[in-house]
UniProtKB/TrEMBL annotation:
This is UDP-N-acetylmuramoyl-L-alanyl-D-glutamate--2,6-diaminopimelate ligase. It comes from Wohlfahrtiimonas chitiniclastica SH04. The gene is murE. It catalyses: UDP-N-acetyl-alpha-D-muramoyl-L-alanyl-D-glutamate + meso-2,6-diaminopimelate + ATP = UDP-N-acetyl-alpha-D-muramoyl-L-alanyl-gamma-D-glutamyl-meso-2,6-diaminopimelate + ADP + phosphate + H(+). Belongs to the MurCDEF family. MurE subfamily. Its EC number is 6.3.2.13.
């Protein structure tokens, strides 16, 4: 597309008007040949600082802001006043053909985004629909997810990713895009310009206060998905206070279809009521009531919260026009998500469960859920806290682990640039009986110790990293997988 057509109201120099661009980028790491590159002023530098790499990439033109110093003379460049507004305008225009083919399902919440996103995407695929995913588990068609550096990618990476997913399904009339939407993304405008077929709210608990500073700011960021973005339908967990408030506010406006869900009674025509949740050795069962009809649900998933996650998925599918009988038939086929309550059965009858829980409420919910599955066994909890992140949660997680686990081992998570011993010291301030807690900072040794001492009927929760296959120490990512450590120890022990 020529820049003249991409920006019809912008007074471009003649040297730029006829330049043809084949993509848009603002991060030199993701720039491609033929791109229009938006050079932004960052906290630690300017986009034009990376010109050597951009030249090799073969970008077609540059829009830049501020006073970067040296502006390249060998690539057409143009200084603009409101570069972020132009980026949004360009993205919506350039990728409009792809956007018109998409049904974007935006999912936000402190806990459960990845599980609900994966459940939804898998169900849509089983129904024979063209589906892509953008979130913690990767970017792309469900069968070919590529690594993702941010749960919700930066603005132009997100738009390009949507375009690339749609291109894979070139013969499909429409493509479902299941998108995890984080509070950071909403606060930073990474989803600006998108319209959502479905916007889904799961819950809100303390998190990311290193960024948002207060829970009120965090809540406001989450609510932006429902207050500032176009959406034809919203699926809302009304068992959560914020979810209930959103439901009442959106109901009063009367501008969209709503699917409230939860255990709380709700007088609404689309209410998805959860009741009679039963946790047992093979998974969970519960009753789902919708529009006067009740359904007995059996699932191989573990944990009380997974009843809510499954019903959030049900709401998403109903919002896309899929009939309830087809959805009910699918539910038993929705199984574990990697790193989310992922069970590894040990030879001696104990079970290691790997879960991403790295926040106080998530840890609480996982521990409570697992305890109900082992009335006669012991529950081990291995956890740590990430460095350079919210320090206030450290003693809170200690309190929760001590209250709900029989044996607690504090270890490293991703210490990053913080001293790991100092992190663990802050965790230990939350224990009432610290002398009963083990501190094994080497995560591999901590896991191996728990696996070696657990007996038949016990569960070992290895919390915090879930699907991650790395550990960040300093500024370096080292290969590390909780699941691989458990599997290797089992093999070695045979």
């Amino acid at each position: 597309m020529k820049l003249l057509h991409l920006f019809p109201t912008l007074e471009l120099p003649i040297s730029l008007q006829e330049v043809t661009v084949s993509g848009l980028s603002s991060d030199s790491r993701y720039a491609k040949q033929g791109d229009l590159f938006f050079a932004l002023q960052g906290a630690n530098g300017h986009g034009l600082d990376y010109m050597d790499g951009l030249r090799k990439t073969g970008i077609a033109a540059i829009f830049y802001e501020g006073e970067p110093g040296k502006v390249p003379s060998d690539i057409p460049a143009f200084k603009v006043a409101d570069i972020h507004a132009l980026m949004k305008e360009a993205a919506v225009m350039f990728y409009q053909a792809a956007l018109k083919k998409t049904n974007i399902i935006g999912i936000t919440g402190t806990e459960g985004k990845t599980s609900v996103a994966m459940f939804t995407a898998v169900a849509l695929q089983k129904l024979g629909r063209a589906v892509g995913m953008i979130g913690t588990n990767g970017i792309g068609p469900l069968d070919n997810l590529k690594e993702n550096t941010h749960t919700t990618p930066d603005f132009l990476v997100l738009y390009r990713s949507i375009d690339e997913i749609v291109a894979v399904f070139e013969t499909a009339e429409s493509v479902d895009i299941v998108l995890e939407v984080t509070s950071h993304a909403l606060d930073q405008g990474r989803v600006a310009g998108l319209s959502f077929a479905v916007s889904t709210f799961l819950n809100l608990a303390r998190d990311h206060l290193d960024y948002h500073e207060t829970v009120a700011n965090y809540r406001a960021a989450k609510e932006r998905l429902f207050n500032e973005y176009a959406s034809t339908t919203s699926v809302l967990n009304i068992d959560d206070v914020v979810g209930y408030d959103l439901f009442k506010a959106l109901q009063a406006k009367g501008e969209r279809t709503l699917y409230p869900f939860g255990e709380q009674a709700c007088e609404h025509e689309n209410d998805l009521r959860i009741s009679e949740i039963d946790l047992h050795a093979q998974g969970l069962r519960f009753t789902l009531t919708h529009q006067g009809r009740s359904y007995a649900i059996e699932s191989p998933l573990y944990g009380h919260f997974n009843a809510h996650n499954l019903v959030a998925m049900v709401g998403n599918l109903l919002a896309l026009g899929i009939e309830m009988p087809r959805i009910i038939d699918l539910l038993p086929e929705i199984t574990l998500v990697k790193g989310r309550m992922e069970a590894i059965f040990l030879d001696n009858g104990a079970v290691a469960v790997i879960d991403y829980a790295h926040k106080p409420n998530a840890l609480l919910q996982v521990l409570k859920a697992l305890k109900k599955h082992i009335p006669n066994g012991d529950l081990y909890c291995i956890f740590g806290c990430g460095g350079d992140r919210d320090r206030g949660k450290r003693p809170l997680m200690a309190e929760i682990a001590e209250a709900h686990a029989d044996h607690v081992i504090v270890t490293n998570d991703n210490p990053r640039t913080e001293n790991d011993l100092a992190i663990s010291d802050e965790i230990f301030t939350g224990f009432k009986a610290p002398e009963k807690v083990q501190r094994i900072l080497d995560r591999k040794l901590a896991i191996e110790h728990a696996v070696s001492v657990a007996k038949a009927g016990d569960i070992i929760l290895i919390a915090g990293k879930g699907h991650e296959d790395y550990q960040i120490i300093g500024h370096t990512k080292h290969h590390f997988s909780d699941a691989e450590i458990v599997a290797a120890f089992i093999t070695q022990d045979r």
